[in-house]
Design a protein that fits this description.
This protein is of the alpha+beta class. It contains 6 helices and 15 strands. The two termini are about 25 Å apart. Bound molecules: uracil.
Length: about 240
């Protein structure tokens, strides 16, 4: 690979603006092949040189992709005045400044959130045009086994002020007091699952997102934990939105 300036390499990685990354270099936080480098115009080969920031290795990638198991009580935002924000859970990656959460989960919803700095992919996953499936497991009030679930797959459901797109509702467990359902929607409208279940007379007690398109939540992640998406997962996500 062609050599490039150290400050450009760091900025391309999303560590900050050119000005910000020069500061990191001046603060002697960056090393190349084991030696601290304090010259921003130092040239490196991203393929063969080992670059570290604060002792952590940096690999040259245009974009970064993570899955987070969002915990209850966190807002889907970079920061918030009143509540903890999901991006604080990735605070050991402070150098990836361009990361953002794709789509939105309510403060009391748990589960899969994709976090990336790939604007085009993020935009497409969230956009209804691409009809990416979002799958949720919901604990709901009462026993919904009397519902004719087939019709939702054809017609969707008319809410007070909105006609939903077709969706799939599967009943997983039933009880008199509460039941468990799986609901798969292809849109990201505000409170869509809660509004559907409310309309059907079975309000949501607990909600967790378990899949976005081809990517399922890694159940080994406890709430609050995240990991990088595998190459396979990134590839399948991109393919699902024609990228
Ligand atoms: N639908 C909801 O009602 N809430 C969410 O967080 C996601 C989908």
């Amino acid at each position: 690979m062609k050599k490039l300036r150290l400050d450009k390499f760091l900025a391309d990685l999303g560590l900050g603006t050119r000005k910000e990354v020069r500061k990191l270099i001046k603060q002697k936080r960056v090393s190349v092949n084991g030696e601290i480098v304090n010259n921003p115009s130092f040239h490196i080969d991203p393929e063969s040189d080992a670059v570290f920031l604060d002792g952590k290795p940096l690999t040259y990638r245009k974009n970064h992709y993570f899955m987070l198991n969002k915990p209850h009580g966190y807002v889907t935002a970079k920061e918030d005045r009143n509540y903890p924000a999901v991006m604080e859970l990735l605070s050991d990656l402070p150098y990836l400044k361009k990361l953002f959460p794709v789509g939105r989960l309510d403060i009391d919803t748990e589960g899969l959130l994709i976090i990336t700095d790939d604007g085009q992919l993020g935009h497409r996953i969230a956009h209804p045009k691409w009809e990416i499936e979002k799958e949720y497991i919901a604990v709901v009030k009462g026993d919904p086994s009397g519902l004719n679930t087939d019709r939702f797959e054809k017609e969707g459901l008319k809410l007070k002020d909105y006609q939903t797109k077709p969706f799939k509702l599967e009943i997983l467990e039933t009880g008199k007091e509460e039941s468990k359902v799986k609901i798969t929607v292809k849109e990201g409208k505000y409170h869509i699952v809660k509004r559907i279940m409310e309309e059907l007379g079975h309000p949501v007690i607990h909600l967790k997102r378990t899949r976005i398109g081809p990517v399922a939540l890694d159940e080994s992640l406890s709430p609050g934990e995240y990991r990088e998406l595998t190459e396979e997962e990134v590839k399948s996500l991109k393919e699902s939105v024609n990228l």
